[in-house]
Write a structure and sequence with these properties.
Layout (H helix, E strand, L loop, with lengths): L11 H11 L7 H13 L2 E3 L7 H12 L4 H6 L11 E4 L4 H10 L6 E5 L9 H14 L3 E5 L2 H5 L3 H15 L3 E5 L8 H13 L2
Parallel strand pairs: 1-2, 2-3, 3-4, 4-5
GO molecular function: deoxyribose-phosphate aldolase activity
Keywords: Lyase, Schiff base
EC number: 4.1.2.4
Length: about 200
């Protein structure tokens, strides 16, 4: 039941005020700052999404994913033996096999993520999006980053958006799915909120 979604209201001035306050919060310093920065590295998807990607530059990216921080810096922090890597390597579906093979050869278990579902525009037919997702998973992607059809948001087709995301989630099978909302193209903060809620409801 998505009838409530049309009644959502976002108080933009309050959001802007809160965002300004966040900028004034104190930041951590010293060892705590180093710890948070190292943690941030482990959450990063190291990504290449270029039209001229080749197996060799994907291989270089995978080496960087396994060794994201210089060894001398890690030794200075006494973190050289902690196995710090990035969270995932993200590529287009056609490069998933290259990334899987390169990471396997490097002897690490970093997951391969793949953008799919017509990334970045989302302007492909739903059946094509689902096929692309299934192929990326078949090639070895353990995470799928889908992009929604922004036109469904801009025209208020909330049930259609829910169904699209639900079908994409089903096509992922065991792979983890992340939903890219492209918030800069959704027209309003209310639409961002609605799209976020529907993405969560759809899995």
């Amino acid at each position: 039941e998505l009838g409530w979604i049309s009644k959502v209201y976002v108080n933009r001035p309050a959001v802007v005020r809160h965002a300004e306050q966040i900028k004034k919060w104190k930041t951590v310093k010293g060892n705590w700052q180093a710890a948070w920065l190292l943690k941030a590295v482990t959450c990063i998807d190291l990504t290449t999404l270029s039209g001229d990607d080749t197996p060799s530059n994907v291989q270089r990216l995978c080496f960087k994913a396994k060794h994201p921080i210089r060894e001398d810096l890690l030794k200075a922090l006494d973190m050289h033996d902690k196995g710090i890597t990035v969270g995932a390597v993200c590529v287009y579906p056609a490069r998933v096999s290259d990334a899987v093979n390169a990471l396997k050869a490097a002897g690490c278990n970093i997951p391969v993520a793949s953008v799919a579902a017509g990334f970045p525009s989302g302007q492909t037919p739903l059946e094509t999006k689902l096929t692309e997702i299934r192929l990326a998973v078949e090639y070895g992607a353990r995470e799928i980053d889908i992009v929604i059809s922004r036109s469904l948001v801009l025209t208020g087709q909330w049930e259609g958006l829910y169904e699209e995301i639900r079908l994409c989630r089903a096509a992922c099978g065991e792979a983890h799915m992340k939903t890219i909302l492209a918030t800069g193209e959704l027209g309003s903060l209310a639409n961002v909120y609605k799209a976020s809620m529907i993405a969560m409801m759809a899995g």
